[in-house]
Design a protein that fits this description.
By secondary structure, the chain is α/β, with parallel strands linked by helices. It contains 18 helices and 17 strands. The chain has a 9-stranded mixed β-sheet. It is globular.
Length: 527
């Protein structure tokens, strides 16, 4: 499907909201295959209504958006209708900053990586935001539309790179297909749904040598790199213990709920124990026999996953809490939080993993989990125990914080032989504990390069050969494997002992079944 009826209306809205942007055709610049230094990069987006829209916004002002693919165009059109008001708001902010540059910033607008932004920085950010939204309105309105990424890749030959921001279970199939055609790929986190897929994606990226990036944007932030430099610089000594926490799923998506299904018992025959309550809840959600909404290609949404009847509790966005399609809180935020200890300490693969949780029905992730990872010593670096907490579980508060509470939203605490390091989600605001240690050390010696662009634009520059990608599949696949092993332990219901070289759990045949998935008929992972 290459177009939808609402496309004309979208174009009309875009024409009113923003001026057109002229793109010089590449044949004018020098013929097929030639890319002048000033030439823009042709991008296709797959999954463009949620995080994909945010990624495309970051790319739109400096690149061509030539194709958009989504299984639910009704939802996408609703989200893109929000862009003109956002543009008006961004332009107003620019005007206000120019008129009163020293006025106190609105809540959330004056901070950047744990510090207060200068008036010039605030203005520059606002101008860039307005330019990006303006460009996306125009370019998305002109881009070709598809529902099936396979048709898009087969028909449209001008694509240089593909941004994949679909539900987790389709990341690997789309990225593999794109890389097989020599397309550069940016894939949202988590990189994929299974350990086997992570291995396959890393192998394909190495073979094709295309530029790859996972969407864990904290990997590109200055603060995150400062945190790495604190740890690798030895300022807190040897690290043997790490605590990582998030408040997800919070109230963002449902977990710990039964799958919608007609009741099998008469209400009067049920008691009010947990099993009976779950059956009542499932039957209540199943009432109504919800039809597939107009504009949603449900079979394409399911992709390689098992056949399940549509229900509004699954889509949009709520897919993350369901085993068939998402990886719960660990998959959602592990790439932003486990990333930094995995990176700074070069942890490699864990030797054992054990996930404990609130009740788990096998279909919807538990409301809260705690995962215990053990990593072996690496050269002169000691063995490390890392604990993951979500759904309200929290680590003990370090005594060095006094009465200050841990940020309930999420963070990482490193316990070293000389001191501790704590930082917020995405690596933001790293600080040493106790405060006297932080004050004596000050800023760590810089050993890592800083990323001058957005995480998305870093990927484009890598595709053009200008710089290495910040979080390429070579790294991102290994980080993702660590995260997914926590899910494997949860689903197997046991502590697992892992032989990473063989990609095998040595103490549970059942657990090995969860390292990969059998694709539904008609879907393959092209390797």
């Amino acid at each position: 499907m290459t177009s939808v009826p609402s496309r004309r209306k979208f174009l009309e809205t875009a024409a009113v909201a923003a001026a057109g942007v002229t793109i010089v055709p590449r044949h004018v610049l020098g013929g097929t295959g030639f890319q002048a230094p000033s030439d823009t990069f042709n991008i296709a987006g797959v999954g463009v209504g949620g995080m994909g829209r945010s990624n495309l916004t970051a790319l739109a002002s400096q690149n061509n958006i030539v194709a958009l693919c989504d299984v639910d165009w009704s939802f996408v059109d609703q989200k893109y209708a929000e862009l003109p008001p956002q543009l008006a708001q961004a332009r107003k902010q620019v005007a206000d900053l120019k008129a009163s540059p020293n006025a106190p910033p609105a809540q959330g607008q004056g901070q950047g990586q744990g510090r207060v932004l200068s008036p010039a920085e605030r203005l520059r950010n606002a101008e860039q935001r307005a330019a990006n939204v303006d460009a996306l309105i125009t370019k998305a309105g002109k881009a070709k539309r598809y529902q099936d990424y396979r048709q898009m890749l087969a028909e449209q030959k001008d694509i240089d790179g593909v941004v994949v921001a679909t539900p987790d279970h389709t990341h690997a199939a789309i990225a593999m297909a794109a890389m097989s055609l020599g397309k550069h790929v940016y894939v949202q986190k988590p990189l994929c749904w299974s350990v086997h897929e992570a291995r396959a994606l890393a192998k394909k990226a190495a073979e094709t040598k295309v530029a790859t990036q996972m969407g864990n944007q904290g990997h590109s932030l200055d603060d995150a790199r400062k945190a790495i430099e604190y740890v690798q610089g030895g300022y807190i000594g040897d690290v043997r213990e790490i605590h990582v926490w998030t408040n997800r799923p919070y109230a963002y998506w449902p977990q710990g709920v039964p799958r919608p299904a007609p009741g099998t018992s008469k209400p009067e025959d049920l008691t009010w124990n947990p099993r009976s309550v779950a059956e009542r809840l499932a039957a209540t959600m199943a009432a109504g026999n919800y039809p597939v909404p107009e504009g949603l290609a449900w079979d394409l949404f399911l992709g390689p996953a098992p056949q399940v009847a549509y229900h509004p509790i699954y889509h949009p966005f709520n897919w993350r809490g369901w085993v068939d399609w998402g990886q719960g809180a660990l998959g959602d935020m592990g790439a932003h939080l486990i990333d930094h200890p995995f990176w700074s300490l070069e942890l490699g693969m864990p030797t054992t993993v054990e996930t404990v949780a609130t009740p788990f029905n096998g279909a919807s992730y538990p409301t809260a989990t705690m995962t215990h990872y053990e990593f072996a010593a690496r050269g002169s670096k000691p063995a490390v125990k890392l604990t993951w907490y979500d759904g309200g579980f929290m680590p003990p508060r370090p005594e060095e914080l006094g009465e200050t509470k841990l940020d309930a939203g999420g963070g990482v605490l490193y316990v070293g032989s000389k001191g501790k390091l704590i930082h917020d989600t995405y690596g933001a605001n790293p600080r040493l504990l106790p405060k006297s240690l932080h004050d004596s050390v000050g800023t760590p010696k810089q050993t890592l390069p800083r990323i001058a662009t957005s995480h998305e634009m870093n990927w484009v520059e890598a595709a053009k050969g200008k710089t290495p990608a910040s979080s390429p599949f070579e790294y991102a696949a290994r980080l993702t494997e660590v995260m997914l092993l926590g899910i494997v332990s949860l689903r197997a219901g046991t502590k697992i002992h892992y032989d990473a070289a063989a990609m095998r759990v040595t103490n549970s045949d059942k657990a090995n079944d969860f390292l990969r998935r059998d694709y539904r008929s008609g879907w393959t992972l092209s390797e």
